[in-house]
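Q: Convert this sequence to structure tokens.
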Amino acid sequence: MNSYTSVLQNKRIVVTGGAGFLGSFIVESLAERGCSRVFVPRSSEFDLRDRDAIIRLFEQERPQVIIHLAAVVGGIGANRANPGRFFYDNAIMGIELMEYARRYDVEKFVATGTICAYPKFTPVPFHEDDLWNGYPEETNAPYGLAKKMMLVQAQAYRAQYGFDAIFLLPVNLYGPRDNFDLHTSHVIPALIRKCVDAQKRGDDKIVLWGDGSPTREFLYVEDAAEGVILATERYNGAEPVNLGTGREIAIRDLAAIIVKEVGFKGEIVWDTSQPNGQPRRCIATDRAAEAFCFRAETDFHEGLRRTIDWYRSELNA
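A:
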């Protein structure tokens, strides 16, 4: 429980995507801070690709703060299958929502981007100043660029209108309540599900994409929620800010850890006909620490154990 009184406590807050993975933890953390006026729009009632629905949302809720998490997102396979949809849906949601936030005098707009926005061959660790030094990795470039347009918009609106919009770049998240659908999930939930399901079936192997050499950085979802809220409370700057741990791990090593934690005894087979994705991902975390005192706290192995335990409990529910 957060013991201090938050500057957000008496604000009317809209959290788009607040019923999703990261959003649900942010909504819970806001409640712990005493924020009682939080609204989570559901897509069935407020389709954020529809201008009329956005206007209706602002007329109904009159938000003072918006934390925009809603996104159409998935792993490499989903990005390859839906480049047009992932670009349009994410771009139009961000553009229209921020425009009407400005028109309705919202005090603070928090846009969440993606690590996929970085160039494919960004020097490691990724510094925010490297964000425009090349084109993103091809399999998720449309999604990454659509999200990055919110940074352009936020900076343009700050310059012209004095609008307080900030842009955060979280790394890959993981934790309980993640998406474990193999068609749309990211790497950690996909690995956990493959191992647990193979173990239950008695399979002697699992097949994973690529060759296992790429590296990724992972942030536990509760740490991510804390980072977003701290930024909402404390940061008012034009520059983008990374949210992560500053530590990378090869997918091959990640798979070995998950296999061990799950207790799967079979073989890992790497399907090298499938893409690896971006070669390396690891971010610099200094700006978040300096700007709003955020540092991730959850031990990676402990976070994986909690995630595996949650998935197994859901299977047995």
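DSSP finds ten helices and twelve strands in the chain.
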